[in-house]
Amino acid sequence: MAIRLIVKKGDEALTKVCRTVDKFDDRLHMLLDDMADTMYNADGVGLAAPQIGILKRIVVIDIGDGLVEMINPKIVESDGLQEELEGCLSVPGVYVMTKRPFKVKATALDRNGNPFEIEAEDFMARAICHELDHLDGHLMLERGRVLSDEEIREMMSDGEDDE
Ligand code: NI
Questions:
Q1: What local confidence, expressed as pLDDT, does residue 52 receive?
Q2: Does 86 qualify as catalytic in the annotation?
Q3: Which one from 86, 131, 142, 160 is the annotated catalytic residue?
Q4: What is the pLDDT of residues 32-78, one digit of tens each?
């Protein structure tokens, strides 16, 4: 297990469409463990593989309800709308008011290649949308308006986590 370096906006890895994973071996398990370590170490609630320079379709998310590992994830249904403040470990200090679906249903594979389905609402739905965007080279900056420092100061009194 190891903490990996999180790449920042401007790094090419964050602009690429990532590759599908087809090997569910020890190397993948080590990568997943490193991704979780790196996310927790940075106090994040989600991390996508390209954020550590690995162009594979893998994300880890923990919004406080336990670790979810998603390999080759796909959103298959979405419903409703939420507009919330969003941050990103690769774009430190920047917050964007994004529009995301309120509910999503996603399919993915677990670390052993077994398929599963996840239904999520609210913050978890937003985290899934944010992390899956990374796998196609998209940042939250494309999904809404960047807040000014003054607006952030007002809104941060509630506290927000980075994804
Ligand atoms: Ni992010």
A1: 98
A2: no
A3: 131
A4: 999 999 999 999 999 999 999 999 999 999 999 999 999 999 999 99
CA atoms within 13 A on the CB side of 46: 26
- Give dist(CA 25, CA 29) in Å, integer: 7
- Expressed in angstroms and rounded, the spacing between residue 96 Cα and the centre of ligand 1 is 11
Residue type, 159: G
Q: Which domains does the chain have, with CATH numbers?
A: 12-162 (3.90.45.10)
pLDDT beyond 80 at 158 = no
